[in-house]
Design brief:
Blueprint (H helix, E strand, L loop, with lengths): L1 H9 L18 H4 L4 H10 L19 H16 L3
């Protein structure tokens, strides 16, 4: 049991890289299609955390191994958004 506790404490020092960029991706939907403002707002709040280059992270992203799981989901979402 102590080994598990120690392992959980140690992994807290290893964080995945955050998905934050100031530039829009070339595959960004607004680069390819004109969007009405209401649709753009819905897509921004519902989809962009995983399907863009600028993720808004929840507070629990600081806890491992949850951060690794979320980072993997974000990478998968970015790959699917780049499919043509």
């Amino acid at each position: 049991m102590w080994l598990l506790v120690i392992a959980l404490i140690v992994i807290q020092f290893f964080h995945p890289e955050k998905n934050i960029s100031s530039a829009a991706s070339p595959a960004h939907i607004s680069q390819k299609f004109p969007l009405p403002e209401d649709v753009k707002q819905i897509i921004t709040t519902s989809c962009f955390d995983c399907h863009s280059n600028n993720t808004h992270y929840p507070w629990y992203f600081s806890v491992q191994p949850i951060a690794w799981w979320l980072a993997d989901d974000i990478e998968e979402g970015k790959k699917t958004s780049q499919l043509r």
